[in-house]
Design a protein that fits this description.
448 residues, alpha+beta, five-stranded antiparallel beta sheet, 10 strands, 16% strand
């Protein structure tokens, strides 16, 4: 009953029809809504509605009655999505945000934008326009294709290739070749197009079967550092980024003709960090290496200032070096001020495990990270550092802020954590620099 009344309310007030559909998506439960009137915002659950007013149960469990004639805008919240859903978020300042909707709640909207998760303030959101998922779009395109017409099928396969759905395009091309043997020239053209189209969405090839700790000796490359910075880029607090003009032209040519895609003139005017956002939205990972980020994003900058340079390298690195690797954990200590070395130490820290298989960093619950326990006084730790000569607690009394820094830094990093060893396309083995000792055999003992 409430759902029906609410639908009538939306239509009576003249709001977007998509809001009515959104309320239907909520199901049989009570709609969660946000109402704006006279400069005020009311968030809660619709409990009743009649001809002149609607009753809201607010988040503090109180109830308020609002006159319909006073309502300026009303929006049904979609809640937590079962899986990321393509969408465009229309903001009240007239701008738009494209991505995959993760959550639309009272606290705000969470979007998956390429390799980043972005949170938008609920007060700034005007409406959310859901788009078809990839599977839905492919199914719709195929339903519009004449299966017995080689020209129609060829256009469908060409669309699959240009949209980056290469595995499906390959299967359709095999069927096309079998069903239309006389269209061999078309088959050859489609095959050439399929081979030439880079696969930005497909995961990179897995490296050779080596130990998880077998990261390169010495340092990462500048390209690998740049790619980590893209993964950790914060669009809400953008760092300086440079987009070459050639990349804009290449990007435009690749997506030319797509519905709603900016023309070259608009792309050239787009600020560099907004272009990076669009590049991430389109998932053209093969173009990431052309992006130039010379300053660490906030999460990586915080790792450098409050963790790596403050205590990880000078204290832990005093014993845990790559040469000795006690307990199977070692940091690269040479040229450690360079980003290429600091990023390598980040990967070494992320890959390190204790003897019982627990990672040093607990990304889902940073306060439970073994790294924090190992840095405490052994008498106060659940998983204490092994007794070794010269060990001194890192997080002793007076350094509570150091523990807080680790927790807050981990919460700033991109989640879920990618397998950066694969994402960076690190090739194994990497030739070590001269006079570098061979990498020690990793151990599963407690880092000590």
């Amino acid at each position: 009953m409430i759902i029906t009344l609410f639908l009538n309310l939306i239509f009576a007030l003249g709001f977007d029809e998509s809001e009515a559909k959104a309320s239907d998506d909520v199901g049989a439960g009570t709609p969660s809504i946000v109402v704006h009137l006279d400069g005020r915002r009311f968030a809660g659950f619709l409990s009743a509605a009649d001809g002149d007013s609607l009753s809201l149960q607010l988040l503090d469990s109180t109830t308020t009655v609002i006159a319909k004639r006073m309502v300026e805008s009303i929006r049904v919240l979609k809640g937590v999505m079962p899986e990321p859903h393509p969408c465009v978020v229309h903001l009240k300042d007239g701008t738009k945000r494209r991505g995959s909707l993760l959550e639309d709640g009272f606290d705000g909207v969470r979007l998956q934008v390429g390799p980043r998760t972005e949170r938008l303030d609920a007060n700034g959101v005007d409406r959310i326009e859901l788009h078809a998922t990839v599977a839905q779009e492919i199914a719709t395109r195929k339903a519009q294709t004449a299966p017995k017409d080689p020209g129609s099928m060829a256009r469908f396969i060409r669309w699959l290739i240009m949209e980056g759905h290469l595995e499906i395009a390959s299967e359709e091309l095999k069927a096309f070749n079998a069903n239309f043997p006389d269209a061999s020239d078309t088959t050859k053209d489609l095959r050439r197009l399929l081979v030439a189209r880079p696969s930005g969405d497909q995961p990179p090839r897995k490296p050779r079967a080596v130990s998880r700790n077998a990261l390169p000796l010495g340092a990462l490359t500048k390209a690998e550092v740049n790619r980590i910075r893209i993964w950790e880029y914060d669009f809400e607090n953008p760092s300086p980024v440079r987009i070459p003009g050639e990349l804009r032209r290449t990007f435009h040519a690749r997506h030319l003709g797509k519905k709603g895609f900016p023309d070259l003139k608009q792309l050239r005017r787009l600020p560099d960090h907004e272009f990076l956002r669009l590049l991430c939205e389109m998932r053209d990972r093969d173009l990431y290496d052309s992006v130039q980020i010379t300053v660490d994003p906030p999460a990586l900058d915080r790792f450098r200032r409050t963790i790596h340079d403050r205590w990880l390298l000078p204290k832990c690195g005093a014993c845990h070096t790559r040469e000795s690797s006690p307990g199977g954990f070692g940091l690269e200590t040479r040229d450690a001020t360079k980003p290429e070395v600091r990023m390598l130490n980040l990967l070494l820290l992320e890959h390190a495990k204790t003897s019982d298989g627990a990672p040093l960093l607990n990304w889902k619950n940073p306060s439970e990270s073994r790294l924090l326990d190992l840095g405490k006084d052994p008498r106060a730790a659940k998983h204490p550092h092994p007794e070794v000569e010269g060990y001194a607690p890192v997080f002793h009394r007076g350094r509570e802020a150091w523990v807080t820094n680790v927790i807050e830094w981990a919460e700033m990093m991109y989640l879920p954590r990618p397998d950066l060893g694969s994402e960076l396309r690190i090739e194994w083995p990497r030739n070590p620099s001269k006079s570098t000792p061979s990498e020690p055999t990793p151990s599963t003992a407690d880092p000590s």
